[in-house]
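S., here's the first fold you wanted:
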Amino acid sequence: MVYRWLAAGLIIACCSSVYAFTPTGVAPKFFGPNALPVPDMTDGRTYEQLRVELAADAYWGYDGSKTADLFARVHIPLFTRWANLSVWMPVYEWYNQFDGKGSGAGDVYLTTDIQVLHNAWFKGERARFIPQMTIRAGIKTASGEQFERRRHFDDPGYFFDASIGQSFPIGPVELRIAGSAGFLCWQTANARQNDAVMYGLQAQVRHEYFSLQTTWGGYVGWEDYGDRPMSLKVRAAGHIQGFEPYVQYQWGIKDYPYHQLRVGLAYNIDILKANK
């Protein structure tokens, strides 16, 4: 009798172990491009001005699928240049994939970005050698539609990261190098969650009238089943009296089977003049 109970317990334990480590497939490789893309990294600085951004995206998948969307983002200084509230989302998307056409709204992302180190806080010659550093805490809502068609995760998520950057003046341009690292978590299925390490490296050349930026980054989930997206983003922008027209291309290197072309316009408004 005892042996029967031991055998039953062993079978249950083995089944539970298999269940616990079976990948859920709720990962960016198997969903639409707006389900959980690699977040844009910060460069060690918060925004000193209110920044409003609108863009149009075109995605084409490695499987022949196509997606178009309208994208919106805003960075709001929280009464000081050292802290921002940032909100962004793919407002609405239209797609054509293997099971037909459709459309729907996307998830909302909210972050608080805080400056924790800046060379402006130091005096003297050594100040120019001090890098800038920000920390960011964000959440992803579950407002995205059509989980059944694998367009968005029907679950919330959150992340924390830190970025550090340093600028180097080279004649009329500024070269900036930045890196980031953090933690990303999202709920998958059956009350489980996936935890991932975030990473990113960025190089930017900025002139008074234009800038060019390249970012390599991604995150590494623990399931190792479509949850380790990596991408390369290249962005070119102009700077004209507060306006910033730009174009961006993203190449999905791994577990993000899409190319992206974004055309957008940002506008910066100085709302903190009285506080400077």
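And the second, which I think is the more interesting of the pair:
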Amino acid sequence: MSRAWIVVALVFLFMVINFADKAVVGLASVPIMEELHLSRAQFGMLGSAFFLLFSVSGVAVGFLANRISTKTIMWVMGVVWAAALLPMSIVSSFAVLVTSRVVLGAAEGPAFPVAVHAVYKWFRDERRALPTSVVASGAAVGAGIVAPMVIWVIDAFGWHAAFGTLGAIGLAWVGLWLVLGSEGPAADPSATPSGAGRRVPYAQLLMSRTAIGVYVAGFAAYWIIALNLVWLGNYLIKALRMAPADAAWVIALPSAMQMALAPAIAYLSQRLSGLGISSRVSRGWLGTLCVVIGGVSMACFPFVAMGALKIFLVGVACSIGSVFFTLGTTLIGEISPASQRGAALGVTNSIVTLAGLCAPIAMGRIVDINADPSAGFRAGYLYAGALVAALGVAAAILINPEHDLRRFRRAR
């Protein structure tokens, strides 16, 4: 079991680097926009460029993960991440920056599903929620807890240095993974829930009620993540007039909250399951409730003056919905046969992260069409919060893994 947790620790670091790479553009938004003379719509396009090939690569590599070891896939991804980041340590061009983000997005698209697939090879279904929450917490650390460090590098050495630093850290992780990473034992039918041990037609699996519900809630949760990564720093500095150093700590707050919430809610989910509560409730309803709370909190941004309550709402809105990635992933793992799990997770992640393609540019356009950027941000966050909350409710109605597993058995 110790070997399994070594892999979990390395995958956690993998996700820290993954989300730090995503977040660096948002953290460096002010100097990038000033140096390259970008409008907010252009910067929104830059944020969305990261997701141009994100979903396509997620599907493609998800199917490959059914056949190729996750150890191999992950070290290759790590090398490509570094190769995409390092040129930006010396180049100052909007076209090159967009190209770098497209390449990085293509290489990072499969990261979360492949990482989870690697971890699932070491744990049975009933024990997966906690290690999945650890992996998801890596995203929180990368997106926020390292923010003060990245902003310090930007302030002290410039935004180019931040890209170079993250590229070098990525290469260091590749070395660790090659030495310490290992493939988990192959899952056998006994490791999957009854009814999910044999192959299911992909059309039936991917269009099941539970899968669609996970897509909807995950899309909503990722909408918030994308806004957090691309626009939160700019919102705090430009609209709320915070100093960059102060903004860095506010950006770190959602990540700190997620690190506490993800394992706590994962533990609660496992306890509910142990008490005989259905997976629809213990995973589906619990996860979608978190998404709805995140959306409602974001929709309240325009109505609360700057202060402790506003900062608390930012923390809640940008953290609690991300819990769904722990529980939604376990739902997909629950209904998917082991031999099809990599592809199912890859497809799910690719659909969910389409929000990353839409959210940054939508916010940029809303802000730009308002004469006052502060008013634009208020409208953008109100609309985003309402959308997220509505999608969370719809997902709660759809998710029903017990129903889907019964349907899969009847179809054989």
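Why I say that: The domain at 2-411 is CATH 1.20.1250.20 (Growth Hormone; Chain: A;). The CA atoms of residues 268 and 282 lie 8 Å apart.

Talk tomorrow,
H.
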